[in-house]
């Protein structure tokens, strides 16, 4: 009798445990499902300035930029980093006199400050002093070789000086480390066009369209290259697409168009100031402040790839992997042909112990760049995840 009783009790307890586990899994599943449905991406979340950013006038947007510069100078008074943000704001507002004055003030504190030297090179370029711009850029390449802006400005100065062959050298070196730079790809096309290498020009303009399918400059360059090769059909097709894009970006009313452009420029100034300010806070280790300002920049000018990449880095430094994944998903949506964005996304999924999306991201990267050393390393990570 007692053995039967013990068996009955055992099965009753077992049934209770099974029921509890089933209930727990059910609750866990519903919670996870609800969380995945309810969770809002950092890039899509509501923010206090939403109405202001949507309706702000040109003047109000400039006021935002000025307020951020003032706040930054108060937080980091008389520092080269903060002064560079102020000078770049003035440069963007076409106040070249104050921009030059401030950048020279930075160099009085730090004679080798790369941002100030680049700013002065930019001023020289805008003034048509291409020899001065070239000299400053070549100096920066020796002292600050990792700055991706320098070779682009140097190449532009070479092109405007009629030295397309030297522009080619600068750009070919740059494209090895920045293979998805649309500006570099288009400038390579222009340099080859100027060197009468029309077939190579077509290759580079076509490569630019891979990453920027609606680039007016790339289609215009294609039209020029095809025309000089005598391919009238392809030239007309490219120029027709150029005309369509140019018309689509214009406005029927000239006054409305100018007002729109003025506001867009003001939004760009404010966004760039927020981004520049964010980099200062990041350097000071104030990552939350940096994150806030990058988000403000992106809300004024959404989907700027370089800014999204910076936001992702700041999130990773804080250990915020899921928000970093949200940004990674936006990046691969914008640049689906960029293997390194897929690699970063895969790594973030792997860190969160989500093997299936990690493997999928790694495989997409490998398919895009099978010979890349990082993609080769991803193959062994896939084996471990499997």
Summarize the structure in words.
With 386 residues, the chain is mostly helical. It is 81% helix and 0% strand. It is built from 20 helices and no strands.
Name some characteristics of this structure.
81% helix; disordered N terminus; 20 helices; 386 residues; mainly alpha
Share of helical residues: over 70%
**Strand proportion:** under 5%
Please tally the helical runs, counting DSSP H or I stretches of 4 or more residues.
Answer: 20
What is the average per-residue confidence, as pLDDT, rounded to a whole number?
A: 87
In whole angstroms, how far apart are the ends?
51 Å
Mind summarizing the main beta sheet? none
Evaluate the radius of gyration: 27 Å
Helix-strand sequence: HHHHHHHHHHHHHHHHHHHH
Indicate the structural class.
Answer: mainly alpha
How many beta-strand segments?
0
Q: What shape does the CA trace take?
A: globular
Ranges with pLDDT <50 over ≥5 residues? 1-37
What is this entry, summarized?
The chain is mostly helical. The chain has helices at residues 2-38, 50-55, 58-75, 80-92, 96-109, 114-126, 130-143, 149-160, 164-177, 182-194, 198-211, 216-229, 232-249, 254-283, 287-300, 305-317, 321-334, 339-351, 355-368, 373-385.
Element layout with pairings:
Blueprint: H1 2-38, H2 50-55, H3 58-75, H4 80-92, H5 96-109, H6 114-126, H7 130-143, H8 149-160, H9 164-177, H10 182-194, H11 198-211, H12 216-229, H13 232-249, H14 254-283, H15 287-300, H16 305-317, H17 321-334, H18 339-351, H19 355-368, H20 373-385
């Amino acid at each position: 009798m007692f053995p039967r009783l013990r068996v009955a009790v055992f099965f009753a307890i077992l049934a209770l445990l099974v029921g509890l586990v089933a209930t727990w899994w059910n609750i866990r599943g519903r919670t996870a499902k609800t969380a995945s449905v309810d969770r809002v991406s950092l890039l899509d979340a509501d923010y206090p300035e939403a109405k202001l950013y949507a309706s702000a006038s040109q003047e109000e947007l400039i006021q935002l930029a000025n307020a951020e510069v003032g706040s930054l100078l108060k937080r980091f008074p008389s520092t080269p980093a903060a002064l560079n943000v102020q000078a770049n704001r003035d440069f963007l507002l076409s106040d070249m006199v104050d921009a030059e004055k401030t950048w020279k003030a930075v160099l009085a504190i730090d004679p080798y400050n790369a941002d100030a030297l680049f700013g002065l090179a930019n001023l020289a370029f805008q003034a048509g002093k291409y020899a001065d711009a070239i000299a400053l850029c070549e100096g920066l390449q020796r002292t600050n070789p990792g700055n991706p802006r320098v070779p682009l400005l140097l190449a532009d100065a070479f092109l405007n000086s009629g030295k397309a062959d030297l522009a080619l050298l600068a750009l070919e070196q740059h494209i090895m480390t920045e293979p998805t730079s649309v500006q570099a790809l288009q400038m390579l096309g222009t340099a080859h066009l100027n060197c009468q290498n029309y077939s190579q020009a077509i290759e580079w303009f076509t490569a630019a369209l891979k990453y920027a399918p609606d680039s007016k400059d790339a289609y215009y360059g294609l039209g020029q290259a095809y025309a000089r090769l005598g391919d009238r059909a392809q030239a007309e097709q490219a120029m027709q697409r150029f005309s369509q894009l140019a018309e689509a970006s214009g406005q029927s009313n000239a006054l409305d168009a100018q007002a729109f452009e003025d506001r867009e420029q003001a939004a760009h100034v404010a966004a760039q100031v927020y981004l520049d300010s964010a980099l200062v806070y990041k350097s000071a280790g104030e990552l939350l402040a940096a994150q806030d300002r990058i988000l403000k920049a992106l809300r004024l000018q959404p989907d700027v790839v370089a800014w999204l990449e910076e936001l992702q880095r700041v999130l990773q430094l804080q250990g915020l992997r899921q928000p970093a994944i949200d940004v990674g998903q936006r990046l691969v949506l914008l640049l689906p042909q960029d293997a390194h964005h897929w690699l970063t996304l895969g790594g973030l999924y792997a860190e969160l112990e989500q093997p299936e999306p990690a493997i999928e991201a790694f495989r997409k990267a490998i398919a895009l760049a099978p010979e890349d050393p990082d993609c080769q390393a991803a193959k062994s990570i896939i084996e471990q995840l499997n």
